[in-house]
Write a structure and sequence with these properties.
With 338 residues, the chain is an alpha/beta fold. The chain has eleven helices and 15 strands. The strands form four sheets. Strands 3-2-1-4-5-7-12 form a seven-stranded parallel beta sheet, sandwiched between helices. A four-stranded mixed beta sheet has the order 6-15-10-13. A two-stranded parallel ribbon has the order 8-11.
C-alpha cells in the first residue's frame, strides 16, 4: 500500500515506519520535527535500505496537508502526530486540543480529497481513566482524567463519525499502554536528551548521571509494593501490531478499538529493578507524592487484538531495558542541556 505517516519520525512512528518498509509498503512521512530529528530519517533509510519521501509539515496547517496528500495520493494513513504528555496537557490543555484533535480533523479532510479509505490511529490507554479493577477492556467506559486522554477520545469519535459517513472506510484505533525500549540496532528509540516525562527515559537520565535520583510519584497505592501499576510493552511489539492491523484490516469492521499491551501489570519499582539488572547499576529512588492525573493501575486485556489480528508480545521487560540502554549509550549527548 501507499501510506502517509504523520509523526513518522517520532518514537513510535519511526519504529512502525521501519516495519512497514520491511514489509514492502511505500510510505511518505510527515513530521514537524518538534520532538524528532532528521537523523531518524537517515537511520530509517539505512535500516530499510530504501528511499523515503519526507515533508516537514504540521498537521494543523491544512494547506500543507492538502499539498502533500494531493501529490502522494496515499491509500491510507498512520496517524501518530500529536502531543503526548499527561502533565503538560494539564498546564496547556488548549494546545493539546489544537494539535491532537484539530490535527486529526485536518488529516481526514485531506484524505477524503484523494478518497483514501483507511486510517490507523495512535490512541492511548489514558482514555480509560480510573479503572476499578485495573485491567482495561475495549468495552470499558472511557472517562479520561486528563486533557491528553480527552483529546485521544475526541479524536476516536471524529474517526468513528468519518467512517459512519462512508462505510467503505476503515478506522482502527490502537490504544497503547506503555511503550518502552528501542530498536535492537540502537538507531531508533525514545529521545534521551532534554526534559523527560516518561519513566524509562527518566531512569536513563539518572543512570547516565544527569540527575541525582529518580522521582517515583506515589508510594502509597494499593499495589504489591505501593507504586503504580502499568503495562510496559516493548516498542517492537507495538510496531509489529501496527503491521498486523494492515494485514487484517479488510476483514475488520469499519471502526475498531484495540488494546496493545502485554496483558500483565508491572509496578514502577519492578521496572526499575529490571532496568538495574539490564544496566548493571543501582538507581537511587525518591518516593514523592502522587501526581495529578495518574491512575493507580492500568493494564490491558488484549484478547480482542489476539482474535482479530493475531497480536502476541514476543519481547520481555528485561529485553526492553537492554535495548533502551543500548540506544541511550549510542545517542546520549552530555552537552545537550548545558
Amino acid at each position: 500500500m501507499k501510506i502517509i505517516v504523520t509523526g513518522g519520525l517520532g518514537y513510535i512512528g519511526s519504529n512502525v515506519c521501519l516495519e512497514l518498509l520491511l514489509k514492502g509498503h511505500e510510505i511518505c512521512i510527515l513530521d514537524n520535527l518538534c520532538n524528532s530529528s532528521l537523523i531518524v530519517l537517515d537511520n530509517l533509510k539505512f535500516l530499510s535500505q530504501k528511499n523515503i519521501e519526507f515533508f516537514n509539515c504540521d498537521v494543523r496547517n491544512i494547506n500543507d496537508l492538502y499539498n502533500v496528500i494531493d501529490q502522494f495520493k496515499p491509500e491510507g494513513a498512520y496517524h501518530f502526530a500529536g502531543l503526548k504528555s499527561v502533565t503538560d496537557s494539564l498546564s496547556n490543555p488548549l494546545e493539546y486540543y489544537d494539535v491532537n484533535v484539530t490535527g486529526t480533523v485536518n488529516l481526514l479532510k485531506a484524505l477524503t480529497r484523494v478518497n483514501a479509505k483507511a486510517v490507523v490511529f495512535s490512541s492511548s490507554a489514558t482514555l480509560y481513566g480510573q479503572s476499578a479493577s485495573g485491567v482495561c477492556f475495549e468495552t470499558d467506559p472511557t472517562i479520561p482524567i486528563n486533557p491528553y486522554g480527552w483529546t485521544k477520545l475526541m479524536s476516536e469519535q471524529v474517526l468513528r463519525d468519518w467512517v459512519e459517513a462512508d462505510r467503505s472506510r476503515r478506522a482502527i484505533c490502537l490504544r497503547y499502554f506503555n511503550p518502552i525500549g528501542a530498536h535492537e540496532s540502537g538507531l531508533l528509540g525514545e529521545p534521551v536528551n532534554g526534559k523527560q516525562a516518561n519513566l524509562l527515559p527518566a531512569l536513563i537520565d539518572v543512570w547516565l548521571k544527569r540527575t541525582g535520583e529518580l522521582a517515583v510519584f506515589g508510594g502509597d497505592y494499593n499495589t504489591f509494593d505501593g507504586t503504580a501499576e502499568r503495562d510496559y510493552v516493548h516498542i517492537y511489539d507495538i510496531a509489529n501490531g501496527h503491521v498486523q492491523v494492515l494485514e487484517h484490516i479488510c476483514q475488520m469492521s469499519s471502526f475498531e478499538t484495540l488494546n496493545l499491551g502485554t496483558g500483565k501489570s508491572t509496578t514502577v519499582l519492578n521496572l526499575i529493578r529490571e532496568f538495574e539488572r539490564a544496566c548493571g547499576d543501582e538507581i537511587p529512588v525518591n518516593i514523592c507524592d502522587r501526581r495529578d492525573g495518574d491512575s493507580q493501575s492500568c493494564y490491558a486485556n488484549v484478547e480482542k487484538a489476539r482474535q482479530l489480528i493475531g497480536f502476541e508480545c514476543r519481547k520481555t521487560l528485561y529485553e526492553a531495558c537492554v535495548d533502551a540502554c543500548n540506544y541511550a549509550t549510542k545517542n546520549f549527548d552530555p552537552q545537550h542541556d548545558r
